[in-house]
């Protein structure tokens, strides 16, 4: 069972966590490593490009964005940072109690940022992200059921006053959605 959990968590951890600055300098983080959450029950990979990605106010390029939902209802919009000097450079906008205004929009209040880099401590060989208490919001337009997401925008400020921004635009290819296990819905959906 432990091996299965690690196999499921490995791709998510690779996409869902970072500590940043320039390519070689880490941002100081004053929080403990992120708590171990329940296993991911749904993972969606969105292809496209970042029009804007700022981590602690510094601009970066990105490789991809993933939406990860865990069995307890926590959601992460994980951004794989395009950093040639650090293949583990990932930033995640994380929150709970997401809401749909209609079939093609989703809003997630952000309460923490998960920051990962090659310099983070490892557990079972995988980097453990630092967790920064934050306030912000992510908005997604599109629909996973239709396998079409248009864009994802996120904005957050952590408890140290650092800002994080994302504007990710889809390239129009179908979203790759994987339901890993069945869980109770956590989205407040007025249409059901």
State the main characteristics:
192 residues; mainly beta; twelve-stranded antiparallel sheet; two-stranded antiparallel ribbon; 1 helix; 7% helix; globular
Structure explained in plain terms:
Helix content is 7%, strand content 50%. Strands 1, 2, 3, 4, 5, 6, 7, 8, 11, 12, 13 and 14 form a twelve-stranded antiparallel sheet that branches. It has a two-stranded antiparallel ribbon with strand order 9-10. The protein is built from one helix and 14 strands. With 192 residues, the chain is mainly beta. Mean pLDDT is 80; it is low at 1-25. 38% of the residues are buried.
Order of helices and strands: HEEEEEEEEEEEEEE
Low-confidence stretches: 1-25
Gyration radius from CA atoms, angstroms: 15 Å
Q: Count the E strands.
A: 14
Count of individual helical segments: 1
The termini sit apart by 34 Å
Q: What's the average pLDDT?
A: 80
How does the helix and strand content classify structurally?
mainly beta
Strand content: over 45%
The percentage helix is under 10%
The description of the largest β-sheet is:
12 strands, antiparallel
Molecular shape: globular
């Amino acid at each position: 069972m432990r091996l299965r959990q690690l196999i499921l968590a490995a791709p998510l951890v690779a996409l869902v966590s970072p500590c940043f600055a320039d390519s070689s300098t880490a941002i100081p983080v004053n929080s403990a490593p992120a708590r171990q959450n329940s296993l991911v029950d749904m993972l969606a990979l969105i292809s496209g490009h970042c029009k804007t990605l700022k981590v602690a106010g510094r601009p970066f390029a990105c490789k991809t964005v993933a939406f990860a939902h865990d069995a307890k209802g926590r959601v992460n919009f994980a951004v794989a940072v395009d950093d040639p000097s650090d293949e583990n450079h990932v930033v995640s906008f994380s929150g709970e109690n997401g809401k749909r205004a209609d079939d093609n929009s989703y809003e997630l209040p952000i309460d923490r940022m998960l920051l990962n880099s090659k310099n983070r401590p490892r557990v079972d060989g995988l980097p453990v992200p630092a967790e920064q208490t934050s306030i912000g919001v992510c908005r997604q337009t599109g629909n996973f059921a239709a396998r079409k997401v248009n864009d994802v925008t996120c904005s957050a400020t952590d408890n140290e006053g650092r800002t994080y921004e994302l504007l990710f635009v889809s390239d129009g290819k179908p979203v790759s959605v994987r339901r890993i296990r069945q869980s109770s819905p956590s989205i407040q959906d007025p249409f059901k």
